[in-house]
Amino acid sequence: MTFRLFLSAVAIVLAGLSATPADAQTPGEIAAVQSYLAGLGYEPGPADGVMGGRTRTAIEQFEASRGQPVSGEVTDWLVALATGLAADSGGVGVVETE
Asked: Of the residues 8, 34, 56, 75, which has the fewest C-beta atoms closer than 10 A?
């Protein structure tokens, strides 16, 4: 499988990701999101995998800045960004693959 074909397959999978809260967030996913948001200058608190008030506020601020529905929850879209499965499009909610 070529790299371009692999990226196309990833894009198809990511197109199915929603910005609605994930069914169950693992502590690892929450910690990844906390780390990601902290790296962008938001203040989610420590990357401890616990959903606290600072984490919810940071997620809400990030979602609003990117034109996403504001939920304050860890979503599939946010986990994909935090884990490098998607690139941040800077405000339009579009998954970039290259």
From this structure: 8
Q: What is the pLDDT of residues 46-98, one digit of tens each?
A: 999 999 999 999 999 999 999 999 999 999 999 999 998 877 766 544 444 44
**Helical (H) or strand (E) element with 31:** helix 27-39
The total number of residues written for the chain in this structure: 98
Name the amino acid, one letter, at 69.
Answer: P
Dist CA 84 CA 94 (whole Å): 14
pTM of the shown model? 0.69
d(CA 78, CA 75): 5
Say whether 59 sits in a helix, a strand or coil: helix
